[in-house]
Amino acid sequence: MPLQAGANVGHYQVLGLIGAGGMGEVYRATDTKLNRDVALKLLPPQFTSDPDRMERFQREAHVLASLNHPSIAAIYGLEESKRVRALVIGTGRRADLGGSRLPPVPILKMLT
User: Fold this and answer.
1) Which of 2, 9, 28, 75 is the most exposed place for a label (fewest CB within 10 A)?
2) Is the whole model's pTM more than 0.70, yes or no?
């Protein structure tokens, strides 16, 4: 069941759904303690009781936390609240770009 705007996951207030896929839903949220924008990637409830899925989710968090690159959003942590498991992710470079995407570059132009 999708979270509604205004719902809280720990000290994060949900602003809205960004997208959904096979491993969960991603929401735009505000960190109410540090007053910053974050993304919350929620593991679907049916996966929270599956040890293999939980291990995969934990492994994803560890791998992403080990990366350090300006084009990769930072992992701020893992949140558990009322059977909700979420990765807390920095908003990354897109926020620096005013929310717009970079224009596509044709591959042939890049190779010549």
Assistant:
1) 2
2) yes
The verdict on residue 57 lying in a domain is: yes
pLDDT at residue 96 above 50? no
C-alpha to C-alpha distance for 51 and 64, rounded to whole angstroms: 20
Residue 1 lies in a domain: no
Could you write out the DSSP letters of every residue in 68-86? --TTSPPEEEEEEETTEEE
| Gap between the Cα atoms of 73 and 43, Å rounded | 18
How many CB atoms are located within 10 Å of the residue 41 CB? 22
Domain that includes residue 52, residue range: 8-111
Q: What is the CATH number of the domain that holds 66?
A: 3.30.200.20
Structural domain total, the chain: 1
